[in-house]
What we know:
Layout: H1 2-27, H2 30-40, H3 47-56, H4 63-71, E1 79-80, E2 86-87, H5 119-154, H6 159-173, H7 176-190, H8 208-238, H9 241-248, H10 253-265, H11 267-274, H12 276-290, H13 296-305, H14 309-337
Antiparallel strand pairs: 1-2
Helix pairs in contact: 1-14, 2-3, 5-6, 5-8, 5-13, 6-8, 7-8, 7-12, 8-10, 8-11, 8-12, 9-10, 11-14, 12-13, 13-14
Amino acid sequence: MLKFLIGRLATMLLTMLCTTFIVFFLVNLEPNLVRLAKGQINSRASDAAVESWLDRNGYRAPLLERYGAWLGVWPRQPIYDERGRPTATARNCPVLEKPAYAGVLQGYLGCSTRYKEAVGPKILEGLKATGVLMFWVMIVMVPSALLIGVLAGMREGSRTDRGLSVFSILTTSTPEYVSGIVFTIIFASWLGVLNGSAATATTKGVSFYNFTLPVMTMALYGMGYIARMTRASMAEVMTSQYIRTARLKGLSFRLIVWRHALRNALIAPFTVIMLQFPWLLTGVVIVEVIFRYRGFGWMLVEAAGNNDIELLLACSTASVMVVLITQLISDVGYVFLNPRIRVQ
């Protein structure tokens, strides 16, 4: 197990380096840099002014040197104002008077040109808000999906199975941007029982009135996939030899399902449930924009729309970390749940 973990951690580190470098290269293409400079100076700024701003802010240094400075393995160069004095581009950002190591390895993620403050606290704020949304989505989605899958798989081919399977297919085939708009029209516009905007959730707190629609939108979309996987696993377990033996012994159907079938049937859905976290990071972007919830997804859209390079890099790093950590937990948990698997 230790050798397995060391190998996985090494793979995670290599994946993060490759992913962040690709994102770093793409966001530092020349059109993006020119757009960033004009957004900070003036949309009608001359080429000389754009070039001067890029040079003073360190964007004309070699790409590998800037990537190393962002990582913290190469000294970061000072940033100068129009008079040639060292300055900071945003609040809570250090003023470097000489080259110094200040990067990811030192806990510094740079300064946001969109929000005019340090990226680190801003990312934590967005992840915290999104974490609250993801928590309630998982609370609603996972038990409901497991219940639907178990009920459908207990009696394969029955009316209950067919009805729940149709429901699962409908929820999975309906994207969030469709169900979110439909729910807003029905529950917010027509009935008026729920709030079509979750913007107040980040300021006044989460409530049933302002948080139900985004949670329901995300939970329904992911629920169908987990339910179908659980149903397939449950149906396979119910046809196993040990289940037939338990029936021949005269055990009640409820006891067979609860004591013998359920534990083995939930091994496969465990991996699917853990893989929902990466999906939630992508789905949360659409949902947060639709319902105006200022979380990680909203921040990512704002960073991309305003060409905020440092914030985009921090968002990509956080996303990759969440994906890799959940996959590692999924693999380790699968080994512990299924004793027949041995890590080579």
